[in-house]
Write a structure and sequence with these properties.
Jelly Rolls, alpha+beta, Recoverin, domain 1, Cathepsin B, Chain A, single chain
């Protein structure tokens, strides 16, 4: 960032003493720390009343093996402001106990024998006689990967160099190494699961032989990138866990945007032209790269580009060249090397290319066909198409107001989950279960010429901290009937179906749908409609049993029976070798017109009829009464009864009635239907 000034800092009095050491606090209960570290000038009654008084935090725990879990929870709950205020109060630098300066913060497997020294920026720059800065003044920002740095984090970070607002979204303004502000603590923001999460770190960085071996700036006293990488590593649990991220994931975490990847092999130059133009209109971040394909990462190619380095697309221009009365249309793409290094494109339309002689200098200015510095170049779209292999478009969906046009100005988010036996149906080829996946209805009421542009973004809730313990995310996908993931929709109704690859894989997800509000698009989740059929309340037993006499034998003069007597009565009736136990009878009594846990003879006839109907419905699956059904079959049987069971109710209630394999016996099927029916039967009771 050439000529960039230092980040603005918080105006704090200059007469505060400079930190000299790291505080050492013995382990105790959180409330003891609250008392011991309370500012001396705050009275007990003031502390209770004044919410603006910050409670100082624990800066360091001496014996890591004896850490009290309650204390750790207390520390994690502290905000950056609390930590900073505590450090300022105690005049000590911050040490992060939640992301310690040990190999456990670097490797998933802490048995690694790599010797790492953790140093603060002031210790690293001491040998250069320089003071550390977040952003070095009057220099270009050029970053090195180091021996262990992550190339996707490097590329994503470089893409933010010219995006000042984007960079200061993840690295909030006001932080610096100035003596009056610096306390060894910095905070960053990363986007996950639909929201920005704050990550606070200390500034101790891993070095080997005194040198930074992860991402760092070529300018020895510039540290924003190294600190960003450390915060991102903490965000995932360790430096190693961070490496499991794809470039798309990393860019999403750093921008909050929806990232769509296009493989050049799947496009033609016309569609490529449309995608770039449309993306620029939407104020998207557009990046492209060349697959290494057997080459080394960062290898300089003969055409002047570098393998797997990210290049930003800044502009696209269509011009017409006339020669000998022949008009030749040419489409030019403006590229910029994100690392700020010289771009040595050797083909047509580079800065020294003879093609520029066909355009007068005045016309170049009018057509904005200029190059601002040595890291930029123009390239003809056909050459671009042949050379580059991947195109990344990042739509700023975390903040729709930043869109450059009205083409995309509305974002709707839905949270959902795949639940084993209920809503985890797997991919479309799983014909027996795919239909049970969560479904979202999209109605396009008004479609302009060419269709309504629409983006579907499926995000599985991030389990990277769990993955730190050797668990991986499920493979997920989207089935969008009649359209593709990123499409122009004609007027009509569509169904979006998020799914995992295999059935019965559990997980949570966020579905983000992005569109133009003017197209009058309505979106709702299917399965949240409740319908209870009352036809089964009209069924009466068709039997030769002498029900009245048997009922009277048990009920006596009161002419009513409870759940225990009802179970005895059903036992005597020997219903198709099915035993309705007391728990089943209690559930059946929920359908009685009485709420006292008893039923009279008319209610008994109703309950007997319902029980017979449910047993018949259960056996319609082809299974005997002593077998079990799956959660998928439960939904199907409920629909046969005329019940539409909402997905939320299923996920919240089904576990009460299923075994470890999410299966239900006939008895538990009956109990579930009774529970659902009684829960949503206010309409029947009020009729």
């Amino acid at each position: 960032m050439k000529g960039r000034k230092s980040v603005p800092y918080v105006n704090i009095p200059n007469n505060l003493p400079k930190p000299q050491s790291v505080s050492k606090v013995s382990v105790a209960a959180p409330e003891n720390y609250r008392a011991d570290l309370k500012p001396a000038n705050v009275r007990e009654e003031d502390d209770k009343c004044d919410k603006n008084v910050s409670t100082p935090s624990v800066i360091r725990i001496n014996n890591a093996k004896d850490k009290n879990e309650n204390l750790l929870t207390y520390i994690q709950a502290l905000s950056f402001e609390d930590i900073w205020a505590s450090c300022k109060q105690s005049n000590n630098l911050f040490e992060d106990v939640n992301f310690p300066a040990t190999n456990s913060s670097i490797f998933c497997n802490c048995t690694s024998k790599v010797t790492v020294q953790w140093q603060r920026p002031s210790e690293i720059t001491k040998k250069f006689n320089l003071k550390p800065e977040l952003f070095a003044s009057n220099t270009d920002t050029t970053l090195a990967l180091g021996n262990f740095g992550d190339k996707w984090v490097l590329n994503a970070a470089l893409s933010l160099v010219e995006d000042t607002e984007g960079l200061f979204t993840i690295l909030p303004r006001g932080q610096s190494f100035r003596d009056e502000w610096y306390m060894g603590a910095f905070h960053f923001n990363f986007f996950r699961n639909g929201t920005w999460e704050k990550v606070t770190i200390d500034d101790r960085l891993p070095t080997i032989d005194g040198k930074l071996n992860f991402i760092h700036s070529f300018t020895p006293n510039e540290f924003w990138a190294s600190l960003l990488e450390k915060a991102y590593a903490k965000f995932h649990g360790s430096y190693e866990a961070m490496k499991s991220c794809s470039f798309e994931e990393t860019l999403h975490h750093l921008t909050g945007g929806t990232v769509i990847t296009h493989n050049m092999a799947d496009l033609d130059t016309t569609s490529l032209d449309d995608i770039i133009f449309q993306s620029i209109e939407c104020n998207c971040k557009i990046l492209c790269s060349i697959m290494a394909d057997g080459r080394k990462w960062n290898e300089l190619l003969s055409n002047g580009f570098v393998a797997e380095r990210m290049y930003a697309i800044l502009d696209i221009r269509g011009i017409k060249l006339t020669r000998d009365d022949i008009v030749k249309p040419v489409t030019l793409v403006k590229l910029k090397s994100t690392d700020g290094l010289r771009l040595e494109w050797s083909g047509a339309w580079n800065s020294h290319s003879p093609e520029w002689r066909n355009i007068r200098s005045g016309d170049k200015e009018k057509l904005e066909l200029t190059i601002d510095n040595h890291s930029e170049t123009w390239i003809e779209i056909h050459d671009f198409y042949k050379i580059f292999t991947s195109l990344y478009v990042c739509y700023p969906t975390a903040n729709p107001s930043t869109f450059g046009s009205k083409m995309l100005n509305k974002v709707q988010e839905f949270e959902g989950q795949w639940l084993n036996g209920v809503t985890a149906g797997g991919r479309p080829t799983c014909m027996d279960s795919f239909w049970v996946n969560p479904q979202f209805e999209v109605k396009v009421q008004n479609s302009p010429k060419g269709g309504a542009f629409f983006i579907v973004d499926l995000i599985q809730n991030d389990n990277r901290l769990i993955r730190h313990k050797a668990r991986i995310n499920n493979v997920v996908g989207i089935a969008l009937y009649q359209v593709v993931l990123n499409a122009n929709l004609a007027k009509g109704t569509y169904i979006v179906i998020p799914s995992t690859y295999d059935p019965n894989q559990e997980g949570e997800f966020i579905l983000r749908l992005v569109y133009d509000e003017e197209n009058n698009i309505e979106i709702r989740q299917l399965g949240d409609v409740i319908n209870v059929s009352y036809d089964m309340f009209n069924c009466m037993p068709n039997t030769t049993y002498d029900l009245r006499n048997k009922f009277l034998e048990l009920s006596g003069e009161e002419m009513k029976i409870n759940a225990f007597q009802l179970a005895t009565l059903f036992c005597e009736l020997k219903l198709k070798d099915f035993q309705a136990d007391v728990e089943i009878c209690k559930s059946l009594l929920l359908l009685s017109r009485h709420t006292s846990g008893y039923c009279d003879f008319n209610d008994f006839l109703l309950i007997f009829g319902i029980l017979s109907l449910l047993m018949e419905i259960f056996t319609s699956t082809g299974k005997s009464l002593n077998k079990k059904i799956t959660g998928y079959e439960l939904v199907d049987l409920c629909e046969k009864l005329g019940h539409i069971v909402p997905e939320k109710f299923l996920m919240e209630s089904l576990w009460k009635f299923t075994d470890e394999e999410t299966r239900l016996s006939c008895g538990n099927f009956i109990r579930f239907v009774c529970f659902f029916t009684s829960t949503f039967s206010e309409e029947r009771n009020s009729a």
